[in-house]
Amino acid sequence: AQSVSQHNHHVILSEAASLELGCNYSYGGTVNLFWYVQYPGQHLQLLLKYFSGDPLVKGIKGFEAEFIKSKFSFNLRKPSVQWSDTAEYFCAVNADSSASKIIFGSGTRLSIRP
Amino acid sequence: GAVVSQHPSWVICKSGTSVKIECRSLDFQATTMFWYRQFPKQSLMLMATSNEGSKATYEQGVEKDKFLINHASLTLSTLTVTSAHPEDSSFYICSAILGLAGDQQYFGPGTRLTVT
């Protein structure tokens, strides 16, 4: 069965620190990969997505993610975090493009100290 | 961008009653919508895929007769929690896709259901 693993449940950083959130998936075929963010009290919104092409994708608010096929990973990065980045981050995988069904990771809560 | 709304945003009901939650795509037509359940501090669990004009596809372990899904139009899907129990208390979120299958989903703000 397809699965998505986010190993960091809660990450606490100071402002201006660099961020990397891990995401690994288990599926051997073609995948579409997503990172969604859920700010406190708000709905989920897309940060970035990878379908094909350049494995380094850039998203909104300075976030980027790198798809490494050999490692089945799609880690999220940001060189310098801000207090406003405090949120829950979800990695998600679509392994059946015809069905649009996506599987979410368990999420990583990011807390930024001002 | 594409906007998805849900109504109500929160609801409290008594055990044994039924509750209907609406999910609307406000500025686009959505042939496919999804219903998720999110427990506190946990991830989203897909409950079912709702296709306009056809029966919903439920995920394993989700009771079809308890969680009734209707997708009567291209902009509206409803989830009815029948004979609600306290364990059904949760955050229910819907989403819709705008374009091609496999593309990003646009999420509604969620509905907090509390069953007393």
Structural description of this entry:
The complex is a heterodimer of chains A (114) and B (116). Chain A is mainly beta and 114 residues long. Chain A contains no helices and twelve strands. Chain A is globular and about 40 Å long. In chain A, 36% of the residues are buried. The model of chain A has no long low-confidence stretch (mean pLDDT 92). Chain B is built from no helices and eleven strands. In chain B, strands 2, 4, 5, 6, 9, 10 and 11 form a seven-stranded mixed β-sheet that branches. Chain B starts with a strand and ends with a strand. The interface between A and B is medium-sized, with 25 and 22 residues.
Question: What does this entry show, briefly?
Answer:
The complex is a heterodimer of chains A (114) and B (116). Helix content of chain A is 0%, strand content 50%.
Question: Which structural traits does this protein have?
Answer:
heterodimer; A: 114 residues; mainly beta; six-stranded mixed β-sheet; four-stranded antiparallel β-sheet; globular; B: 116 residues; seven-stranded mixed β-sheet; 0% helix
Can you write the helix and strand succession of chain B as a string? EEEEEEEEEEE
- Percent helix among the residues of chain A? under 10%
The tally of beta strands of chain B, per DSSP, is 11
* Structural class computed from helices and strand pairing of chain B: mainly beta
Q: Which strand-content bin applies to the residues of chain B?
A: over 45%
Structural shape of chain A = globular
Mean pLDDT of chain B: 91
